[in-house]
């Protein structure tokens, strides 16, 4: 969203009318695109691809009828080591929307990845504020140069520079889309610090959070964007490292052992292990894994009201400790939330 605002600001300073639309929480109907319009899609990279919410939006986008030009900008997990800025990887985040929009008749003018700070704090602590500021400053310059080129009608396909690496991680993005995102959605829980302010529910971009048994509950729609965890004023939202990681390993080992033996039996009957038995193997393992994860999450969510369970989750979650920083962009302010807004089911 920040990158889109920067581009709109640059266009406005040049006297070009522009408008930023947010698709958070609701994919509304799209108005017809006027002639001579430059259309831009700015979106985060997640799981080495587009977030499913954004992918669905582009798939539903109307076909082009007037040779509209398009630019694509994906933000991805940038880091910084000393004075060296480290890029993230786009995976399918540029390739997939470009192909879809080309098939719909649009002309791709610009493809730009932007390495804004990584916010995936389930994996690493939030980046220090000073480092975040320096990454933002660098990215602002990149977007400024991009805006100038767009205004002068130039084309640029910066995304192709990392294409070999992006294609290499493409299989991961496929696995994440079909399995990983659902599993990660079941790693979040809240501690007793939660005061039911509803901020996580109000600001969830895909409306994946609700209250169950007086605790926030993350549904399968969660895309692990980390917004809820990063904006929670009480730091009450955690990732259950000490529970989820051992559970995943145990389930994967058991399923792999069982399914492998059953698939071998099928292969013996068919006299060979071909592509179909491999696909069957993947489907059975994936469905079984997610089914067990969903049941386990429901049970643990129910058991969190027991003090010893709450203590176990609390002290085996790295995100609970103060050294595990949250990530917030420089313009993010957490204030004014109402402590009396309580919604329970």
What would you note in describing this structure?
- This protein has helices at residues 2-13, 52-60, 95-103, 129-151, 163-168, 170-184, 199-203, 227-231, 241-270, 275-303, 307-315, and strands at 38-44, 69-75, 79-81, 84-86, 107-114, 156-157, 188-190, 209-212, 215-218, 237-239.
- It is α/β, with parallel strands linked by helices and 345 residues long.
- The chain has two domains: 2-169, Rossmann fold (3-Layer(aba) Sandwich); 185-345, no CATH class.
- The strands form four sheets. A four-stranded parallel beta sheet has the order 1-2-5-6, with helices on both faces.
- The longest helix has 30 residues, at 241-270.
- Mean pLDDT is 86; it is low at 339-345.
Helix fraction by DSSP (H/I, runs of at least 4) = 40-55%
Q: How many domains? A: 2
According to DSSP, the number of beta strands is: 10
Strand order of the largest sheet: 1-2-5-6
Task: Report Rg.
Answer: 22 Å
Largest sheet: 4 strands, parallel
Q: N- to C-terminal separation?
A: 32 Å
Beta-strand content bin: 5-15%
Given this structure, which CATH class of the largest domain is correct? Answer: Alpha Beta
Q: Do you know the CATH architecture of the largest domain? A: 3-Layer(aba) Sandwich
- Apparent shape: globular
Listing every helix as H and every strand as E from the N terminus to the C terminus, the arrangement reads HEHEEEHEHEHHEHEEHEHHH
Low-confidence stretches: 339-345
What is the residue-averaged pLDDT? Answer: 86
